[in-house]
Amino acid sequence: MRVAIIGQGYVGLTISIGAAGAGHSVVGFDLNSRLVAELNNGTSHIEGISNSLLTSFISSGLFSASTQPSVLEGSDVIVIAVPTPLDNDRNPDLSYVHAAAELIKENVRSPALIINESTSYPGTLRNEIAARITNVEHFFASSPERVDPGNTQWGTKNTPRLIAGLTADSLLKAHTFYGSFCDNIIEVSSPEVAEAAKIFENTFRQVNIALVNEFAQIAHALGISGREVLDAAATKPYGFMSFSPGPGVGGHCIPVDPNYLAHVANEVGVPATFIKRANEVNLAMPAYVVKRVVAGAGGSIKGKKVVVVGVSYKSNVADTRETPAAAVIDLLRQQGASVTWHDDLVGTWRGVASSPISGADIAVVVTKHDGLDVAATQACGYVFDCTGSIANVDGI
Ligand SMILES: NC(=O)c1ccc[n+]([C@@H]2O[C@H](COP(=O)([O-])OP(=O)(O)OC[C@H]3O[C@@H](n4cnc5c(N)ncnc54)[C@H](O)[C@@H]3O)[C@@H](O)[C@H]2O)c1
């Protein structure tokens, strides 16, 4: 099949390589000309895709990247994988999805299967995409992406894939496409079900993370180890699922997607109270971390050198979107500390390069990558670990 993927970020590039691996002829379309040039040079910007794999598909002619909208014409399949962020009021911002729909409308004259993989609320495929591309009789399907960057166990091939079509023909075509590179395809009855499943999955994580974040604070106040309690609870073989406390939630999904559900819930008159409360608890975690650091360091961190270790939102990835490290750093500075950060994977962030760990009075570990120099971290006078993975130090 000729496949065009609109958006070559985490999701778009991952799916491009999955489809190229099945022998489809894939063009990755992106507005970012620097990214497109890098991809065509064989340089991948995401952890799960190596330069050598990318280069092999470029060499075999199965993958190329482009900024030219004309490449979309003649595609059998067009996948939309563009950002779905929040606007300034933390409401859904569908402007990228609308732009992608407009792009298809303007440039594609022959019928194609148009699939939305971007995460959004139920009704997006039908009302925000298909309703905008009425000039050609296309087929429309929804397959919300579940990629977990950095996860080496679950990838495009073995993660069960939800699909739904606007019509039976669309569903059949989507099944044929995904069946060529995914092991387990699950058909659901409507695009709205598929879209809602994806945002519920992430809401489930957001709410449970908030629950353990609140519990960690209760346990600390009770003078017991919250993590030991959670480990003990996790020995129950049924009816319990483990989540870990931390400094908050980050990334493109968990802090964002539940607000899409809250938005539609509000429109149909049902208050999404769990989402609201989970947001409050998770967003307050950086303040809790800094309060604990101040207390643990003797009551004041004024004038102290503090290094924040690990600024990406989770271990072993370089993604700093929505990272709680930003709020932790800002709040430490408000307490009068002199704050630097260290993260070998991130390298440069907010216009500043990663600093060494050594020489700091206090280390606050927000994210722990596998390659972290734990000994250098432990050598700081006081260590506060938000990850629960460094022995014999204070933390959540
Ligand atoms: N990152 C994840 O782990 C993850 C997991 C599952 C689902 N998702 C969802 O997938 C979607 C994409 O997320 P992502 O992480 O890949 O985003 P990203 O920011 O990494 O990449 C998006 C890409 O789309 C490009 N783009 C924006 N508008 C465009 C347009 N009109 N035409 C062409 N390209 C355009 C951008 O330049 C960028 O390269 C979002 O809805 C997200 O919620 C993300």
Please outline what is shown here.
The protein is built from 13 helices and 15 strands. The chain is of the alpha/beta class.
| Order of adjacent strands in the largest pleated sheet | 3-2-1-4-5-6-7-8
Number of strands: 15
Helix content: 25-40%
Mean pLDDT: 97
N- to C-terminal distance: 50 Å
Count of DSSP H/I helices: 13
Bound molecules: nicotinamide-adenine-dinucleotide
Uncertain runs with pLDDT below 50, 5 residues or more?
none
What overall geometry do the principal axes of the alpha carbons give?
Answer: globular
Q: What is the structural class?
A: alpha/beta
Radius of gyration, Cα only, in angstroms? 23 Å
Largest sheet: 8 strands, mixed
Order of helices and strands: EHEHHEEHEHEEHEHHHHHEHEEEEHEE
Keywords:
single chain, 396 residues, alpha/beta, eight-stranded mixed beta sheet, 13 helices, 38% helix, 15% strand, globular, binds nicotinamide-adenine-dinucleotide
Polypeptide structure, described:
By secondary structure, the protein is an alpha/beta fold. It is 38% helix and 15% strand. α6 (168-179) links the parallel β7 and β8. α7 crosses α9. The radius of gyration is 23 Å and the shape is globular. The termini are far apart. The mean pLDDT is 97. The structure holds nicotinamide-adenine-dinucleotide.
Task: Give the helix/strand layout.
Blueprint: E1 2-6, H1 10-21, E2 25-29, H2 33-40, H3 51-59, E3 63-66, E4 77-80, H4 95-107, E5 113-116, H5 124-129, E6 139-142, E7 161-165, H6 168-179, E8 185-187, H7 191-222, H8 226-233, H9 257-267, H10 273-283, H11 285-296, E9 305-309, H12 324-334, E10 338-342, E11 348-349, E12 352-353, E13 362-365, H13 374-378, E14 382-385, E15 394-395
Parallel strand pairs: 1-2, 1-4, 2-3, 4-5, 5-6, 7-8, 9-10, 9-13, 13-14, 14-15
Antiparallel strand pairs: 6-7, 11-12
